[in-house]
Predict the 3D structure of the following.
Amino acid sequence: MTVRPQKRLSVAVVESSLDTTGAFNALLQSVLDLREEIDFLFCLPANSKLVAVVQHAGLQVYPLPLVEISRRPKDLITYLPQLLRNAWRLRAAMRKHQARVVHVNDLHNLMGIATRWVSRGQVRTVTHIRRMPESLPARIYNFWVGLHLRYADLIVPVSAANARAFGGATQPKVRIVYDPLPSRERLPAYVPRPGPSISLLYLANYIPGKGQNHVIEAFDALLRQAPKLAVTLTFVGGDFGFPGNLAWKAGLQARVAELGIADQVVFEGKTDDSEATMKAHDVVLNFSDSESFSRVSLEALLYGVPLIATDVGGTREMFVAGETGLLVPAREVPAMTAAMHQLATDAELRRRLSAASPDHVRAQFGRSATSGRLLAVLREADVLATTHSGR
């Protein structure tokens, strides 16, 4: 008897961002890790800067006029019809590519549910969950949770903390999958510098809630407490051109000027090379109000750049406080100031953290816990679709 080879799995991935985010970088890394086992079709907004990024990686792109829910009346009126039109378009593209699974990259993206609906269940949907409940008004977050629990086939939180809003790991649809590490380091291994000058890096897009306001206040307090300390703070990130983000960044710059610390604070645009950016500094900071699984923190730990992060969401699952990095309570500026002072003045502590963190994250976030587990989830969803089509 001739044994037919197993048919190669094909998956449509839907990402609605217009520019680079940590969530997109994590998704892209997963796709690159699995491209030998799966054919991926990336569905992106036609005007997204990510189209060029994905094409450069050698992946197929299917542009769609994707829209996001907003509070503007015009957007609310047009959202549902546009969602359904896009679902029909995506369904047609999936038929052409023989894809039965659609994978969306956060709970606010309803394309998976809509495509499943127009296909009458022939398409199965996998929803990655990256937002934490505190990142949105409770009514909105809980509404989306209810939709995905009812209509998504499988739900993929990126941390145990992230999974709690969906019933935790015991919920039948939930499969916790950590984000993967970067595939490799391109630059020489990081070597901590002894000082005397210390450079602090804040790598995050200029978006309210990312914590830049907290670090400015903490940095000002640090300078007042230790005026002889040679320390600088650099912000690196994008604003997407959105008015709210531009206003947020302008407010941060105004606060820096008001405090009189502009000579020691630099504002830069986004970077396309986070590894080089991190390794050019002495300490990475992440004082976000909410994180499900911070890509910036994960990369800092991998590269061995000493890290201070807020104890929110899945951050605690990422490293051992005091051994591979420092954790501080969210929004507590005095604790942030104290941790910054501790690392800025203790070269030996920086050296110990730098030595311990890479081995820790490599052991904890290897392929079996990240891309390998996601591969199993996508195959499981494909089996569900195959079972349905065989009825």
Summary: Residues 73-96 form the longest helix (24 residues). The two ends are 26 Å apart (CA to CA). The chain is about 40% helix and 15% strand.
